[in-house]
Amino acid sequence: MDVEGPDAGLPPDREDVMSALLAQQRRFRAFVERRVGNRAVAEDLLQTAFARTLEKGGALKDGEGAVAWFYRLLRNALVDHHRRQTAEGRALAVEAREGDGATEDLELKGAVCECLHDLLPTLKPEYAELVRQVDLEGRAVPDVAREVGITSNNAGVRLHRARLALKRSLERGCGTCAEHGCLDCSCKPRR
User: Fold this and answer.
1) Which of 6, 26, 112, 136 is an S-S bond match for 18, by CB 3.0 to 4.6 Å?
2) What is the DSSP letter of 112?
3) How far apart are CA 189 and CA 191, in angstroms?
């Protein structure tokens, strides 16, 4: 997005500064874009720098000094941008590492409906074992599938069917408790 001409109503010295900067706009955009590798991001940084110039650039008196000052402003904006990107990348990496491992939440484990443990043996043995290993022990489906000697896709289908069967058993055995999450369950299964 090109900014057309200096803003009306600026003092004459600021009009000169803005005119000098606007004359270099394409060069500024190319300068930023080469360093960020993305035109949209470059445009955002450039527009932010122009806005900042309107706020802070009143002290500049000549066009040449304004261009040098604006390049410094752009370099600082690029440094800030890259720092933010690096920090976001580190945060995402930490999140990914923490999300990969099975988190041990003892409070949640204690809140799981006790009926679940009573109903697992009512499922087909291969279904019960998948639910126990994947959902209760937090193991990965591909690992369990390898041990059992089936494909990951087959294990995923079996796990889905096992969960549906377990859900039906919980709804039959626990009634409304199962519909509302089975947290802190005190019902006795109706078999």
Assistant:
1) 6
2) S
3) 6
